[in-house]
Amino acid sequence: MDTHDLAIVGVGKIARDQHIPAIAATPAFTLKATASRNTGVEGVARFDQLDALLTTHPEISCISLCTPPQVRYADARRALLAGRHVMLEKPPGATLSEVHDLIALAKQQGVALFATWHSRHAASVQAAAKWLQDKDIQRVEVIWKEDVRRWHPGQDWIWQAGGLGVFDPGINALSVLSEIYPRAVHLTGAELFFPANRDTPIAADLTFNDPGGAEMIAAFDWRQTGPQTWDIRIETAQGTATLSDGGAKLSVDGAQLSEGPDHEYRSLYARFAKLVARSEIDVDLSPMVHVSDAFTLGRRQVVDAFDW
Ligand code: NAP
Fold this sequence. Notes:
It is a single chain. With 308 residues, the protein is an alpha/beta fold. The chain folds into two domains: 4-115, Rossmann fold (3-Layer(aba) Sandwich); 123-260 and 293-303, Dihydrodipicolinate Reductase, domain 2 (2-Layer Sandwich). It contains nine helices and 16 strands. The protein has helices spanning 13-24, 50-56, 72-81, 96-109, 125-132, 148-151, 167-180, 264-278, 286-297; strands spanning 4-9, 29-35, 45-47, 62-65, 85-88, 113-115, 137-145, 186-195, 203-209, 215-221, 229-236, 239-244, 249-252, 255-259, 281-282, 299-303. The strands form two sheets. The chain has a nine-stranded mixed sheet. The protein has a seven-stranded parallel sheet with strand order 3-2-1-4-5-6-15, sandwiched between helices. The radius of gyration is 20 Å and the shape is globular. The structure holds NADP nicotinamide-adenine-dinucleotide phosphate. The site of NADP nicotinamide-adenine-dinucleotide phosphate has 21 residues, from helix 1.
């Protein structure tokens, strides 16, 4: 098997929690360098900026971008222009049009571009997709409620324009929904709740149109303390399925059908290795289209100011 030298850009929470261990567990990749303004990884070449890394290490063929979405495009473009294969954390950019530009550039350069949706790789997502295939779906409820102070401590970029606010976790729910649902749906309405002192919403209520006739709603909220909820509940004529814990567990009418360990990021790097081997592009923008539509259609309500 080919082994590719890889660099991480943006050594923050997700790079340390998930990317570095997943790369270490993936024989196809070796972490050779990082580009991050304030930190590095022990035993690995450290750069402040991606440009210097790309020039100094022509042998590093793969770049994994783990920065916040607002700054990802510029580095992705640099890496693609330098002929490198690129993997993007979710969401793949701050806007749809910048990701379209990256797709065109990756095609022109003949390199791999992978927009990752880690929640699609949760243990029971494929089992849910399979179960739903032949069901008569009546109602779908997506409930993604978590405590922002617990999961995003001090991350100011999520409250700044382009940081998505509660859609940062909410887009994970939409990535799972669009993976398991047997047909495309579209957003028809949104109520967005903005803290008085922030640019992005702390909560959102969404409604969708399913051309197949099912009622479909989603509720995202970052103000949930105590038990955290990442569930998709689907009522069908053949029973009610609940995909819970962000896609880890599937039950039908209370009986567990599927559960498994968390290998989301190992699965992402295994997929990236396949794309790199064939210089292929895998970019599905459908979760991001729903978020963009929510900002387009959403009615804005101002709620209590948020402070850490
Ligand atoms: P983070 O901890 O804030 O880390 C991002 C790193 O990017 C920072 O440590 C920073 O390192 C670098 N950076 C470069 N420009 C920056 C800027 N303008 N503002 C802030 N940081 C900047 O964020 P994260 O939680 O790892 O999230 C990064 C991406 O991964 C997001 O798109 C997020 O949605 C996604 N993600 C996060 C999680 C999670 O659980 N946290 C899970 C899945 C996906 P330097 O200061 O050293 O440059």
